[in-house]
Amino acid sequence: MDTHIPSEFDLSSSSALGAPDPFADSFATSYAGVIAFLAVAAAGSFSRAADRLGIGRSAVSRNVRKLEEQLDTRLFQRTTRSTSLTREGELFYQNCRPGMERIARALDDMRELRAGPPKGHLRIQTSTAFGRRIIAPLLPRFHTRFPDITTELRLSDDAVDFAQDRIDVAFVEGRLEDSGIVARQLMPLQTLTCASPSYMACHGLPRTIGDLERHRCIAFRSAAGRIRNWAFQVDGQPRTYRVPSFQIFNDLDLALQAALRGQGIAQLPAYLASGAIRSGKLAACLSQYAPGDTGHYLCYLSRKHLPSRIRAFVDYVVEEIRGPGMACLDASESAPTACY
């Protein structure tokens, strides 16, 4: 059976709004087809879409066919074995999907505002090293406090895409230049150039940035495929340098382990290196050229009514990271150095 808007909300009724509305008439005759189309596109078949919608397969097929007739466009290629989108169908799907996601999000927000304690699913994205070292250890206590919230932690060094990946909260190095994003600075993001005592004993430490040309440098390759230049501050101005790469990793934890084993000099974020420096397993160098703090930010989409699950997580993380237990992550405190 076809889905239908109850008569009191029927947009095709002129009495509902007081006057005929061509847009309302068009929407009322096509909305069931749009819903059926989106369900088939997401599920990959008419039968699975029918199961998800709770209606018969014939109703799904009929609604899609009516929509195709209204658009005068074929949206699916159908065979006895498969169903796939045409090029026009792909374009229509990409145009419709953001609107449907906003409707689904609006419904979720309204349910959460009325339902009391925070609950629901939370998708979190963070860089790999920061996620492993800082965010993942915070989750057990968060789940104890909010047992009705489920979480998915995505470790990725790619740029965050809130809409495409349906991310609720992201942790970003450096503030995003996007007016639609709320960015709260969590902690300093300071960078330390460091090496182990065993490396120091064999090779010494650089006195100037130019001395790095004669040292074994451990480099990091970003998710975009580029080797990250090292950041410094010279005469009060930020500068970046391409250093000779003795070893290259695409994981900062691996770069840290290589530095701890004495295999070279690494430039690492303070949240990774500060503990090893305090314990004497690493020594910082070139501190006179240390780059300025760029900040580590907690980001989420700007909304007038923030869902309670996101608000609970944001408040919890801010409380935990700015608390005394995380004070050791601030590299602005004096730390043992071996700077020549």
Task: Report what the structure shows.
This protein has 340 residues and is an alpha/beta fold. The strands form 4 sheets. A 5-stranded mixed β-sheet has the order 4-3-5-14-6. It is built from 11 helices and 14 strands. Helix 2 crosses helix 3 (46-53) and helix 3 packs across helix 4.
Helical residue percent band: 25-40%
Strands of the largest sheet, in order across it? 4-3-5-14-6
Share of β-strand residues: 15-25%
Task: Write down the overall mean pLDDT.
Answer: 81
- Report low-confidence residues grouped into runs of 5 or more: 1-18, 330-340
Count of DSSP helices? Answer: 11
End-to-end C-alpha gap: 80 Å
Q: What is the global morphology?
A: elongated
Biggest sheet character: 5 strands, mixed
- Looking at how many chains there are and whether they match, the oligomeric state comes to single chain
Roughly how many Å is the radius of gyration? 27 Å
Please trace the helix and strand order, writing H or E for each element. Answer: HHHHEEHEHHEEEEHEEEEHEHEEH
Number of strands: 14
- Secondary structure class reads alpha/beta
